[in-house]
Amino acid sequence: MSIRVASEGDEGVLLALIMELAEYERLSEHVTADAEDLRRMFFVEKKGNAVICEASGGAIGFATYFFNLSTFAGRPGLYIEDLYVRPEHRGKGVGKSIMSHLAKIALDGGCMRMDWSVLDWNVSSISFYDSIGARKTKDWIPYRISGKAMKDLADGCDD
């Protein structure tokens, strides 16, 4: 097993893994990205980062992440957008290896923490995160705005 930084040409593999993740999370209908979108986002505009875990010559998992910041600490953080391990490779340390890899990237980048979200029904992932020392945050409620609401909000901008 090895973990490597995704590079241009990996967008098809990333898209396949993203589709599997979306199916697992029961969110397939929300995937609108195609391989070109991923190529542009990760490798041209460099809006985020991806790592791919491989074994026996094929991808068995991946993670996508980007750097955020803490104004209170004056230091960056690493936000994990996606983490996925193919079902036949779960329970074999793959997820922990990917998380360890990300933790090293975070520490090497001067990050003070790593953050991510997990679906409340995903008991196996919650147990995994608990087992590696992660803790649920308290007092913080995730919010999101998108689609028409985001457009309406932007339309109110005076610029």
Spatial ordering of strands, largest sheet: 1-2-3-4-5
What's the gyration radius in Å?
17 Å
Largest β sheet strand count, sense and barrel closure? 5 strands, mixed
- Our measurement of the CA-to-CA distance between the termini, rounded to an integer number of angstroms, reads 51 Å
What are the low-pLDDT stretches, counting only 5+ consecutive residues below 50? none
CATH class: Alpha Beta
CATH architecture designation: 3-Layer(aba) Sandwich
Q: Can you tell me the overall shape?
A: globular
Describe this structure in words.
The protein has 159 residues and is an alpha+beta fold. It has one domain: Aminopeptidase (3-Layer(aba) Sandwich), CATH 3.40.630.30. Helices cover 36% and strands 23% of the residues. The chain has five helices and five strands, in the order βααβββαβαα. It has helices at 11-24, 35-44, 94-108, 123-131, 147-155; strands at residues 2-5, 49-55, 58-70, 75-85, 114-115. It has a five-stranded mixed beta sheet with strand order 1-2-3-4-5, with helices on both faces. A hairpin with a 2-residue loop joins β2 and β3 (58-70). α1 (11-24) crosses α2. The longest helix is centred in the middle third of the chain and has 15 residues, at 94-108. The relative contact order is 0.13. The model has no long low-confidence stretch (mean pLDDT 96).
